[in-house]
């Protein structure tokens, strides 16, 4: 069921419940009031009749019937009077025997009065104290006017209920349609958005109510999607560009080599150059692979306990073995006395890769090819500082260096693909860590990485 119909149905249900309760109370109160009124009229008639017959000596049954016939009687009025021996002393309808059982007369005496219904007629029994003995007067009549009024009230209530319910259902449908219209609008607008027009946005209405908040949240999500879509597009374009450059170089060198026959030395030179290009492609492919691995969900990364000092020494040894001119100096601040304080939980390969990237950058972009690595052991975690005296990074490029394939303008003279920092940032975040860079052009750069002890 649509929300619109559900709301209308609920609204109508509540309203009809209230209306039924109200109408029933009005009807029941009116019915009780009519009945009370009629019984008091019956009582007046019963007392008047009894007084005339029993207290006025000149009046006997015959005369009383004549008086009754000439006065304004209640519809179907019938009054009978019994003496203390339950003998009938007066019957207002001479030819009509009122079917009154003895036990009813007894009940009147016992309860000092009685009210009950005989078919449509109301019957009232009262005790009348005569001079010598007590009598029981039973009067019955049909409340034609009261019942007619009640019948009319019932009709009015039923008609009013039907009219009110129809109005409520129509108003409910109109109101809920109006209230939900903005949602339908949002749905229509969202329906038109696909990968080709992620820059579209839905209308945010008054920017205050829940529907506007929904639209605002949706627009924010669209902005995030658009950004990551753009990043993905530029990533693929950059990756293909980076791969094409060495491939074009290799192709060119092979074509030139094939033009003429060459000497052994020339062939060796060409092969060496091709080897360099292949190395370059290899490092790019490795970088992309690692980036893909680091982009996985945290739960998919295998982790183990690692000794921080072991990791740092291994990375230093591996880097210096690969690039013999690099100098990696390591300093520990307050080396812990217990081994457990050196333990860190993470993915060994990724952590090594992150440290290696930062050390490699520091040596690569400094004239003395050296980096100072300082490790501080804090209560909450480990802080690694990598300082160099290299070319530095300009302030206006600082916020872009973590983007994949971005290389600062002063770094182009060195080989690189611009993947190292973005990969490192991903690895640090995977381990719940933080990375900060401070730098001054031509003075040096300091990269700080913080890993919490528990991740
Ligand atoms: P690259 O392969 O270019 O080194 P990275 O992602 O590792 O790629 O670094 C991105 C850019 O950040 C580099 O191109 C360089 O401009 C800048 N950069 C990173 N580290 C340093 C550093 N220690 N000194 C100066 N510039 C740096």
Any overview of this molecule?
It is a single chain. The protein is α+β, with helices and mostly antiparallel strands. The protein has helices spanning 3-55, 61-70, 102-111, 144-191, 210-259, 264-294, 308-322, 348-364, 420-430, and strands at 78-82, 88-91, 114-118, 121-129, 134-141, 304-307, 327-333, 343-346, 370-377, 381-388, 434-440, 444-452. The chain has a 5-stranded antiparallel sheet, sandwiched between helices. A 5-stranded mixed sheet has the order 7-9-10-12-11. A two-stranded antiparallel sheet has the order 6-8. The radius of gyration is 52 Å and the shape is rod-shaped. The mean pLDDT is 91. The structure holds adenosine-5'-diphosphate. Adenosine-5'-diphosphate (ADP) binds at residues 357, 361-362, 365, 388, 390-393, 401, 407-408, 411, 416-422, 445.
Topology:
Elements: H1 3-55, H2 61-70, E1 78-82, E2 88-91, H3 102-111, E3 114-118, E4 121-129, E5 134-141, H4 144-191, H5 210-259, H6 264-294, E6 304-307, H7 308-322, E7 327-333, E8 343-346, H8 348-364, E9 370-377, E10 381-388, H9 420-430, E11 434-440, E12 444-452
Parallel strand pairs: 7-9
Antiparallel strand pairs: 1-2, 1-5, 3-4, 4-5, 6-8, 9-10, 10-12, 11-12
Bound molecules: adenosine-5'-diphosphate.
């Amino acid at each position: 069921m649509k929300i619109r119909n559900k709301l209308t149905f609920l609204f109508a249900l509540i309203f009809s419940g209230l209306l039924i309760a109200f109408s029933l109370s009005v009807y029941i109160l009116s019915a009780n009031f009519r009945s009370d009124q009629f019984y008091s009229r019956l009582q007046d008639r019963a007392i008047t009749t009894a007084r005339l017959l029993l207290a006025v000596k000149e009046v006997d049954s015959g005369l009383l019937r004549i008086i009754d016939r000439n006065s304004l009687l209640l519809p179907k009025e019938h009054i009978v009077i019994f003496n203390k021996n339950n003998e009938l002393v007066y019957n207002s309808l001479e030819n009509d025997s009122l079917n009154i059982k003895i036990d009813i007369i007894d009940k009147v005496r016992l309860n000092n009065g009685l009210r009950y219904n005989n078919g449509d007629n109301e019957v009232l029994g009262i005790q009348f104290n005569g001079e010598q003995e007590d009598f029981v007067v039973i009067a019955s009549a049909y409340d034609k006017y009261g019942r007619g009024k009640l019948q009319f009230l019932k009709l009015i209530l039923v008609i009013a209920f039907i009219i009110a319910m129809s109005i409520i259902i129509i108003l409910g449908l109109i109101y809920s349609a109006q209230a939900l219209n903005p949602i339908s609008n949002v749905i229509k607008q969202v329906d038109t958005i696909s990968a080709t027009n992620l820059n579209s946005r839905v209308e945010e209405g008054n920017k205050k109510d829940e529907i506007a908040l929904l639209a605002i949240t949706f627009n924010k999500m669209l902005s995030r999607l658009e950004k990551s879509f753009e990043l993905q597009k530029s990533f693929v374009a950059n990756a293909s560009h980076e791969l094409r450059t060495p491939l074009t170089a290799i192709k060119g060198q092979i074509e030139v080599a094939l033009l003429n026959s060459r000497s052994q030395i020339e062939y060796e030179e060409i092969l060496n150059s091709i080897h360099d290009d292949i190395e370059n492609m290899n490092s790019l492919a490795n970088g992309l692979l690692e980036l893909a691995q680091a982009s996985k969900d945290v739960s998919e990364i295998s982790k183990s306990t690692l000794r921080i000092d072991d990791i740092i020494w291994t990375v230093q040894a591996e880097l210096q073995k690969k690039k013999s001119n690099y100098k990696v100096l390591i300093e520990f601040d307050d080396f812990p006395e217990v081994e457990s304080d050196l333990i860190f939980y993470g993915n060994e390969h990724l952590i090594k890769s992150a440290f290696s990237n930062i050390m490699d950058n520091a040596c690569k972009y400094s004239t003395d090819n050296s980096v100072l690595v300082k490790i501080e052991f804090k209560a909450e975690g480990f802080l690694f500082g990598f300082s160099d005296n290299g070319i530095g990074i300009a302030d206006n490029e600082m916020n872009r260096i973590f983007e994949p394939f971005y290389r600062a303008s002063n770094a182009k003279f060195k080989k690189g693909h611009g993947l190292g920092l973005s990969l490192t940032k991903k690895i640090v975040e995977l381990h719940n860590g933080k990375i900060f860079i401070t730098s001054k052009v031509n003075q040096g750069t300091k990269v700080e990485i913080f890993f919490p002890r528990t991740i």
